[in-house]
Write a structure and sequence with these properties.
- By secondary structure, this protein is of the alpha/beta class.
- Helix content is 38%, strand content 20%.
- The protein contains four helices and seven strands; from the N terminus they run E-E-H-E-E-E-H-E-H-E-H.
């Protein structure tokens, strides 16, 4: 706080804002969020297949049902492991509750295609309007895949 002097006379104290504590609090909150948010976004670890030109993201009115097919051929809805029977029940309940909802499959790239295709066939049999395969971007490609791609050209 400063006192202002006018012609030798002191006047009232002029309040000034000290922003240092505010900046300290904001930086501490920023650090907390940087540490906590990645922990909240944990998913089942899956190596997604990659593509060169993925479709653009289209905003949807209803969140899709995301199902993970892990390398050991186990199914997860969210972080919960489910059996194939439970999965079919969940798909049926979801279809009845929300007919416009889509299904997104997160499948490991090491899985044989017949496992992925059989799941997509089950989704189609349940009457869903569409299903998608979640893919990674080009930066997730391994060196061997990039070489194979170049040799194909």
């Amino acid at each position: 706080m400063k006192r202002r002097s006018i012609k030798g006379h002191f006047t009232a104290v002029v309040p000034e804002m000290n922003v240092t504590p505010l900046v300290d609090v904001v930086l501490v909150l920023l650090i907390i969020f940087m540490v906590v948010v990645p922990q909240l976004q944990r998913d089942i670890p899956v190596n997604l297949p990659s593509v060169l030109n993925p479709d653009p993201d289209v905003p949807q009115s209803v969140e899709p049902l995301v199902i993970t097919l892990a390398r050991d051929q186990s199914f997860f809805v969210g972080e919960r492991r489910v059996s194939e029977g439970e999965l079919q029940d969940i798909l049926q309940e979801t279809r009845v509750a929300s007919p416009e909802r889509r299904v997104v499959l997160r499948a490991d790239r090491e899985l044989p295609w017949q496992h992925v295709r059989s799941f997509l066939a089950v989704v189609q049999e349940r009457g869903f309007r569409g299903s998608s395969l979640m893919v990674g971007d080009r930066s997730q490609r391994t060196g061997d895949e990039a070489k194979e791609r170049e040799e194909d050209r």
